[in-house]
Amino acid sequence: MVLNQWRQPQTLRRLVWVLVSLPLAWLMAKALAIELGANPVETLEHETGSWALILLLASLAVTPLRQWTGWGFVAPLRRTLGLFGFAYAALHVLIYAVLDRSLLWSELLADLVKRPYVMLGMAAFTLLLVLACTSPRRVVKRLGAARWKVLHRAVYLAVPLAVLHFTWLKMDKNLLARPLSYAAVLGVLLGLRLWWLKRPARGAAGLQSSPAGE
Description:
Subcellular location: Cell membrane; Membrane
Shape: globular
Helix content: over 70%
Number of strands: 0
Largest sheet: none
Family: Belongs to the MsrQ family.
Mean pLDDT: 87
Order of helices and strands: HHHHHHHHHHH
Number of domains: 1
Subunit structure: Heterodimer of a catalytic subunit (MsrP) and a heme-binding subunit (MsrQ).
Membrane topology: Multi-pass membrane protein
Cofactor: heme b; FMN
């Protein structure tokens, strides 16, 4: 009875909302307590960016989890986790643009030219923005399911760009443990997708995502 209740889409979504809000609540508490370290803006940038990646990778893991376990009830979580990943990415960009660069467009443009990892990050964010804007069901209906599915395959470009952005950033500081772990998880998830797609009949059908992650 309890297990069946947790399998309800609304119950699962509420649980995810609570869990993915905890990192932001923790960062806000640390900021209010002035415990973000010597460079609080950098800490906020890195933590929001890291959580964006974690949630985006989690969203990509939903389909393999559903395929291997048969848990069809987890399918809606792909959309939920993806949107929360975008929300953390948006916070990451806002912190960079407003707190780090004070909305000085000259500095922002200079960063795009001088720092390739910034350009990679902005490219990833632009793709995520398009995906987030086209995720509401009314937009799916206007686009049509087939075109929506083609468009949302851009997530398989956006997430690798985001991982490359993070890896390049940390490369200068020789802090590659975390970005390489993200890259490894991404490699496994993309490898699983390719493996399923190559399986006759079951592969192509099994990994088809319905509109809005349902």
